[in-house]
Automatic annotation (TrEMBL):
<dbReference type="Pfam" id="PF13279">
    <property type="entry name" value="4HBT_2"/>
</dbReference>
<comment type="similarity">
    <text>Belongs to the 4-hydroxybenzoyl-CoA thioesterase family.</text>
</comment>
<protein>
    <submittedName>
        <fullName>4-hydroxybenzoyl-CoA thioesterase</fullName>
    </submittedName>
</protein>
<dbReference type="InterPro" id="IPR006684">
    <property type="entry name" value="YbgC/YbaW"/>
</dbReference>
<dbReference type="InterPro" id="IPR029069">
    <property type="entry name" value="HotDog_dom_sf"/>
</dbReference>
<keyword id="KW-0378">Hydrolase</keyword>
<dbReference type="GO" id="GO:0047617">
    <property type="term" value="F:fatty acyl-CoA hydrolase activity"/>
</dbReference>
<dbReference type="InterPro" id="IPR050563">
    <property type="entry name" value="4-hydroxybenzoyl-CoA_TE"/>
</dbReference>
<dbReference type="InterPro" id="IPR014166">
    <property type="entry name" value="Tol-Pal_acyl-CoA_thioesterase"/>
</dbReference>
Length: 151
């Protein structure tokens, strides 16, 4: 899937397990947020920034706000593709746009946006996104072609 700026979106693949489903046999709505969290974490890892190493450098990312829209249910054993692309890169925050797709039939199941703040691990006060990570996002997500603003 191509993003609007022509750059290939990052995608994390996962499978629906029994523990992800509710009494109706479909993925419980909050689990889509977990799938998207994992995709953001894997996005950082792919760029060379493990969250455990970032915490050792007194840097964490926390979700400030989220928005999700649900379109169709996922079910047990479905293989999912979860995208994570930076839509907006600010001094101390990132806005991700994410989608969850069922691979079998390329059905969009859920989509959302997440404002993720960069904070100091010791005080949870805002801090600037490390310059190396900022540069990695600009290079990988084409964030230079998207909204770049100061906080």
């Amino acid at each position: 899937m191509r993003a609007q700026n022509g750059v290939e979106s990052f995608a994390h693949r996962c499978r629906v397990y029994y523990e992800d489903t509710d009494a109706g046999g479909v993925v419980y709505y909050v689990n889509y947020l977990k799938f998207m969290e994992r995709a953001r974490t894997e996005r950082l890892r792919e760029l060379g920034f493990a969250q455990s190493a970032m915490a050792e450098q007194n840097t964490l990312f926390v979700v400030h706000s989220s928005e999700a829209r649900y379109h169709a249910p996922a079910r047990l054993d479905d293989e999912l593709r979860v995208t994570a692309q930076v839509l907006e890169l600010n001094r101390a925050s990132l806005r991700f746009v994410q989608q969850v797709w069922r691979e079998r039939d390329a059905t969009l199941l859920c989509e959302g946006q997440f404002l993720v703040a960069c904070v100091r691990a010791d005080t949870f006060k805002p801090r600037a996104i490390p310059s190396e990570l900022r540069a990695a996002f600009v290079a990988a997500d084409g964030a230079g072609n998207q909204t770049i603003a100061g906080d």
